[in-house]
Amino acid sequence: MSPEALELELARLHPAAFGWAIACCPGDRAAAEDALQASYLKILDGRARFAGRASFRTWLFAVVRNTAAELRRRAAWRRLLPLAALGDPPDGRPDAATVLARADGTRRLVAALATLPRRQREVLHLVFYQDLTITEAADVAGVSLGTARTHYERGKAALRKLLKEDRK
Amino acid sequence: MTERNDADLRDRFHVLRREDAATAPRFDATLAAARARAAAPARRRARWLAVATVLVAGVALVLLVMRPDRRGRTIGLASVRWNGPTDFLLVLPGDELLRTVPNVGRMRPSILPGLPGAGFTTTDSDRRTP
Q1: DSSP H helical segments within B1-130, as ranges?
Q2: Is A105 within 8 Å of B12 when comparing Cβ atoms?
Q3: What would the CATH number be for the domain defined by A1-92?
């Protein structure tokens, strides 16, 4: 893939990739933007190469997911070291602008999702938000199809329960 | 587990998607920020180097302070005796005989005056003669 073609594909998938980055860094929009920028950089300077084994979108989401995990690990290490105050550590809560921009129903959905285990949250996001199949979601999350299916079913049941409790 | 419920969840997620898309940063801006980020790794590296230097210097200082004081300790050289592992080779068999003069078989008459045969002198060679 030429750099121009790569840029075009990234531009086309940018809104979806941003949504996925937010799902990978819940409650921290700045971290999501960081992860997205670092992912684009990896792709454009060739550190992450698209081999064509999956669809471009699935591959991009996997890159974003891995990059977000890398940044999370690095941030955790940085918090242990001196000079940690040089960066603003995320407090895990969504920033005020994001909260205000969200409708009430969406806010409840985001709050419920935040209480789910990471894998369940990821699989639900990929299936319902990104409209991927469970097989594609398994590819992105780096788990087997069976595991993805289990996360999907359990996550769906837990989310429904949380939303129902919230409505009461 | 019904289709209707799944559709409800899907609708909720789609609303979330629309809201995220409305607040998403522009692709050009994200790409420009990514490129700016690539141009400034040296500064980040320098910061990490500074952190590492501070840590290493701290550890070295702590080790230096905790080290037992060697300056106050003196070694009495007079009390030190070192034996080499091959010293035993210097000891020859019969070394004692070579270093001392044996004094056996000679009787001096002055110390035994009353005994019979006083004044008689014998030597080793005499005694060994049958």
Answers
A1: 3-23, 27-39, 41-66, 95-99, 124-128
A2: yes
A3: 1.10.1740
